[in-house]
Specification:
This protein is of the alpha/beta class and about 210 residues long. The chain is built from four helices and nine strands. About 25% of the residues are buried.
Length: about 210
């Protein structure tokens, strides 16, 4: 399960390990129809109703989960069903509010991608994910400051595209011992711009 360069080449993965389903239309768009044996799952329109949730059983085999347009407000459903996840991606989960129960994934989770959850504000539970290597909080709610980065001892890549850092101080990225790459959009109050950040990170990595 090599996720180097932050990408997954699904055409190189055994089709029997990948499961894709649109829960709104009850449509499986992949040859594999056995969720229980799958290691990778991509689901559309997950709703937190008994009828929909019961379509997705618990699984200790699942390592990768991508949810598109799910109506979850926290991570309780995910943490209850998929404790062995190594990579979680949430795209356009616009009702996501907080990080409650995400610490239930702390033992194994290495990649966390949250994209376009503008109401999402994390507090203490996300900070318990000590094995995170990749953290993407793109187009999410504002973050007070980046002091929390020091709590992720294995973090290598941090992205916050279109997410505001309220105090504007990006120095904690450079002060972190293992961060090698970063992605963000320049804002007037940020004290380090993107090109300068790339240069400084490169110098730090090459020391």
């Amino acid at each position: 399960m090599d996720w180097t360069f932050n990408s997954i080449l699904f055409d190189e993965i055994d089709v029997n390990k990948v499961y894709q389903k649109d829960l709104k239309n009850n449509d499986i768009s992949w040859p594999n129809q056995n969720f229980g044996n799958s290691e990778y799952a991509i689901l559309w329109h997950l709703k937190t109703t008994d009828k929909i949730v019961n379509q997705i059983p618990k699984s200790d085999n699942l390592k990768f989960l991508q949810l598109n347009w799910a109506n979850i407000t926290d991570f309780s459903l995910i943490a209850d069903k998929f404790t062995k996840l190594k990579r979680l991606e949430l795209q356009c989960c616009i009702k996501l509010l907080n990080d409650d129960f995400i610490d239930g994934l702390s033992e194994n989770l290495e990649h966390l991608h949250i994209l376009t959850s503008k109401k999402f504000i994390f507090e203490q539970n996300l900070l318990k994910l000590k094995n995170l290597r990749i953290l993407c909080l793109n187009d999410c709610g504002p973050i007070e400051n980046l002091d929390f980065l020091k709590l992720f001892p294995k973090l290598e890549d941090f992205r916050f595209v279109n997410t505001n850092i309220l105090d504007g101080n990006l120095k904690p990225i450079l002060e972190h011992p293992t961060i090698k790459s970063v992605g963000f959009l320049n804002k007037r109050h940020f004290n380090i711009k993107d090109l300068e950040m790339q240069k400084l990170l490169g110098e730090k990595t090459n020391k």
